[in-house]
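Memo to structure team: turn this sequence into structure tokens by end of day. - J.P.
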Amino acid sequence: MTDRQKKEGEATQPTNRWQLWVSWMLTVILIALLISVLYWQPILAQEMAALNGGPEAITIDPIEDLSVEALASMPHFEVEQEDVYLVRFPETKTIAPTRPRSQPMDYEVLSGDAVFSIAQKFNISPETLLWSNYAVLRDDPHTLDVGQVLRIPPTNGILYEWKDGDTLESVAATFKASVDDILNWTGNKLDLTNPEIEPGELVMIPGGQREFQQWVVPTYAVGRSGTASLPGGCEVAGPVLYGSGWFNWPADNRYLSGNDYWSGHLAIDIAAGTGAPIYAADSGVVVFAGWNSNGYGNVVMIDHMNGYHTLYAHLSSINVYCGANVVQGNIIGRAGSTGNSTGPHLHFEVRYLGGFLNPWTVLP
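Reply from structure team:
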């Protein structure tokens, strides 16, 4: 090596040492900045969140967990919610099937049942239930009794037992139905090309209907009330009270416990436990007070002397006598389940000039 090369090497050594020291210093500074950022960033984020009104910051030790990410300041939302809401509870026990039926089924009458309530359970009309069980009920909803077995049709109409000599045309005409509807009803399982039905088979008549044979207590009246006086009513002598034409509820409850008003039941069945007081819906004179053999049990009928009559049936006891004047609100008897009844309630009728009115139209 020449002297010149030695001198150049000695000159470059201080330069290399200086560059090495500079690079080490820069490395140390960068590491210090990184540690500072990791330490102060969560603290600054917490302070910013507090200033913005956010939720209380979580205390984090950056020395123990350097992997914690910065906390972002999120806006605070308040949702206004109304108090009214709907809660739907699951029905664990059902009587009616969840899918459409094409075949009839049997149902045993339970305590508290009524034609109207049974029909509601199976999504059919009460007329359909009554029409399809003539052999049991004889068109009278009051003949319903615990333990009876009723046929439940799959749809509205008449479930008819085919008789010898019947034809599709004659049956359809009798029940005001369509031959095509009978043929096309899936449950009848008829051969469209050769529909043969044997006597005794049950055939569904969709949309079929017929007239009812109404079983009602006759209207007993004082001669001047606007209706003819019938034998079996009370002999009324002396002055009588007149009704106001405005009616009050005859029981403490104002809801039903069985039959509503419909073509086969010209009254409403008001919920009332055995022994509950029954009140005169308006002032008038008692024209019948006693036992009725058509299924009504103990009955009170009041003539309000203005064309209106009210009737109270299935009473456990009667507190008035035949021919007595009663004031609106007087206790005339106690609720019960006498006669043809599956449970205690008040059978309440309103009549005007001998015709039946829907009680809902006159009750407050």
